[in-house]
Design brief:
rod-shaped; Immunoglobulin-like; mainly beta
Length: about 500
């Protein structure tokens, strides 16, 4: 229970530490302004013949250019537009009327509102209502003789909803669009041939400094994904080294960090690519949403050694800025290359074709004093170039009658062999035998999970005096029973016969 409690406390402290690092993101701001000259526009609407006509109109007064947000600067996450300018409307009527008689009137009602739009937002001015009219011969004159006028202001701040329309890569401009919209009614008397209302707009003062347009852009720095919490690192190689086949999965840690500051966007994983689809490699980085600036997170790359030989895989993690609704998100690839070599255990043998861990050396019948006799034996590593080598750890034997040069072996690679020898000096009469036990192991430095092997070499020699008859084979074989060699010799002969049979096939 105490251990569990400590683990809970540790987890709580870790959570508090991570929460301390997490900070609210504070966007940066940059503002641009414009003071254009006065904008002018006009339009005319006409009714033919007596009666009443209603018109709905939208007229573009003009546009104002202002600097757009440069997407090489960062990620646009918000913008506010501010306008403060005057607006004036003059409206008059004119038409075609007979020289005398009744029903020679033209009445108009003009209701107009000016507005300025940009980035999906609109700032509207005050509404202006005018009622110009004419009577009789005046209707044939210029509308200036019977015009009405009114003024208003357009002032306010609006939040832009279409950020993409005010942003672009590199320097450039975007436009405020000024419009006048409303409804006009024309009422022609009974004797009016046609009646028109003429509207003239002026947006802004003749003094440009009085015409104020501005945009404040809110933006974040691009995220700074890295495979190191200390420096920018977008690629990394993870080498699992050499491992034995079937030794079980191994893993190594790697880190994903966001090196930004409080003005930097988070970073998220939006996709993972693999170069070879080597399923022996796997990763725990399968999802990551909004790794805050200044934070880091550890993941694992695992390797399961099932395929002998060289294994490799390249993971490309596509990291994108986390700034919901932002414009100009950037994707940064983090690339991890994984390498591993899988080898089999060594396969020691005294036979080049099958595994055989014992051999028998028979020096035969030797005449006393005939001089040292040497017999060779071959040690094979019947693995291949994807197998561990062999090394001699130690050896023992029972007597000092026989000597061997197999006293050292640092590395016998797979697929190779080495010739060793046993030597016997017939200086004493009698039957001599020995068992050499060689303790070998895989040669794979710094590779855990190596195996040990025990190989035995059994030796025999009979020394006789030239003046006496040589013992019969049955006699000296009986003498070997106390030493336990008959079974060894029999097994060895059986193995030789089996290999001979296989070779004949």
């Amino acid at each position: 229970m105490k251990v569990v409690g400590l683990k809970r406390v540790a987890a709580l402290l870790l959570g508090l530490a991570m929460a301390t690092r997490a900070q609210a993101v504070v966007p940066l701001q940059i503002s641009f302004s414009a003071s254009p000259t006065q904008l002018l526009s006009n339009f005319t609407q006409t009714r033919v013949g007596p009666g009443t006509s209603d018109f709905t109109n939208v007229s573009t007064i003009g546009t104002v250019s202002i600097t757009r947000f440069d997407l090489t600067t960062g990620i646009l996450v918000g913008a506010q537009a501010t306008v403060n300018t005057s607006y004036a409307l003059t409206a008059g009527v004119t038409g075609v009327a007979p020289g005398n008689g009744s029903g020679r009137t033209i009445d108009a009602t003009v209701n107009q509102t000016a507005s300025i739009s940009i980035g999906g937002a609109t700032i509207a001015g005050s509404s202006i209502s005018l009622a110009p009219k004419c009577d009789g011969g005046d209707c044939n004159n210029s509308p200036n003789n019977n015009s009405r006028s009114g003024t208003g202001t357009i002032s306010g701040t609006a939040t832009l909803t279409d950020l993409a329309s005010v942003a672009g890569t590199g320097p450039g401009t975007t436009l405020f669009t000024a419009r006048s919209s409303g409804t006009n009614r024309i009422v022609n008397g009974a004797n009016i041939t046609s009646g028109s209302v003429v509207s003239n707009y002026s947006l802004g003062s003749t003094t440009p400094a009085s015409n104020q347009y501005s945009i404040t852009y809110n933006y974040l720095k691009f995220s700074a994904p890295s495979l190191s919490p200390a420096q920018v690192q977008t690629s990394q190689t993870i080498d699992f080294g050499t491992v034995f086949a079937g030794s079980g999965p191994v893993s190594q840690n790697f880190t994903v960090a966001n090196l930004g500051d409080i003005n930097t966007a988070g970073t998220s994983l939006i996709g993972t690519g693999r170069a070879t689809n080597n399923t022996n490699f796997s990763t725990t980085l399968t999802s990551l949403t909004n790794l805050a600036a200044g934070a880091s997170q550890n993941f694992q790359l695992a390797f399961n050694p099932t395929t002998v030989g060289t294994n490799s895989e390249t993971f490309t993690f596509s990291m994108q800025d986390y700034a919901p609704g932002g414009v100009g998100l950037k994707t940064t690839p983090l690339v991890i290359t994984a390498n591993a070599r899988v080898i089999n255990h060594a396969n020691p043998s005294f036979d080049p074709l099958v595994s055989d861990l014992t051999t028998f050396l028979n020096f035969g019948n030797l005449q006393l004093g005939s001089g040292p006799v040497t017999l060779d034996f071959i040690l094979y590593n019947i693995g291949d170039n994807n197998s561990a080598g062999l090394q001699l750890i130690s050896f023992t034997n029972l007597t000092s009658n026989f000597t061997t040069n197999f006293t050292q072996l640092a590395n016998l690679p797979g697929g190779q062999s080495r010739i060793f020898s046993m030597t016997f000096d017939p200086g004493t009469l009698g039957l001599f035998q020995d068992i050499f036990t060689f303790n070998l192991a895989d040669f794979a430095p710094q590779v855990p999970g190596g195996q040990n092997y025990t190989l035995t070499v059994t030796t025999r020699a009979l020394v006789f005096d030239g003046t006496e008859p040589v013992p019969e084979p049955g006699t000296w074989l009986t003498m070997l029973t106390g030493f336990g060699l008959i079974g060894v010799i029999s097994r060895r002969r059986a193995a030789v016969r089996s290999r001979a049979a296989l070779q004949r096939l």
